[in-house]
Design a protein that fits this description.
The protein has one helix and 16 strands. The longest helix is centred in the first third of the chain and has 20 residues.
Length: 194
């Protein structure tokens, strides 16, 4: 074995190539092209119906569908099996055609800032970055508490946050911006939390 460095480089190359292939493999989720506004679906009426049957609503685990402000992006959560993590799938409409453009691990229910520049996910958020999104960032220690169970956080145009807390009896909390500083979240009153 005179060529130990060459053999080592070959093994490392194979390992690196395998890792790259796994990272860039095709998703477990595929979708047809969809045309028209509202993802080609009729606008909602007074009776609840599954959204985009056979495309989004497939009779499995498809939840938390939401359009981003402007109605040009749609996101929902699914998973291909119990052994795999819940996944957010994002669609974008361009030239009247909807195509899947993003997929990432779910870390809370998605909601958007009113201008669509920020995607909130429980105790974290992503900022719009060109045609995509930044990495997930934490809202900080004021919200990232082990004793709170935030599933959905919504934000107003003035920066007020309203969120649930399932670890504290399903209460609703509110946090405002005052003079540009985030105020400590407070439990909303009995009109909301009954």
């Amino acid at each position: 074995m005179k060529n130990k460095p060459g053999l080592l480089l070959l093994i490392l190359g194979i390992i690196a190539n395998y890792g790259f292939a796994q990272e860039n493999k095709e998703s477990d989720f595929s979708f047809p092209e969809i045309e028209g506004p509202y993802m080609g679906q009729k606008p909602p009426g007074m009776v609840a119906e599954p959204f985009a049957p056979g495309i989004i609503s497939k009779g499995g685990w498809e939840i938390e569908g939401v359009f981003a402000p402007g109605m040009k992006e749609f996101y929902f959560v699914t998973r291909s099996s119990k052994e795999k993590p819940a996944t957010v799938i994002g669609f974008r409409e361009q030239d009247n055609v909807w195509k899947k453009y993003i997929e990432f691990k779910r870390t809370g229910e998605i909601s958007f800032s009113p201008d669509g520049s920020r995607m909130h996910m429980a105790k974290g958020y992503k900022d719009r970055n060109g045609d995509g999104w930044s990495e997930r960032k934490s809202l900080g220690p004021m919200f990232n508490r082990e004793d709170w169970g935030i599933m959905r956080l919504t934000a107003s145009s003035k920066g007020t946050y309203v969120f649930d807390d399932y670890k504290s009896g399903d209460v609703i909390r509110i946090s405002r911006l005052k003079d540009g500083k985030r105020q400590a979240p407070k439990e909303m009153g009995p009109v909301v939390n009954t």
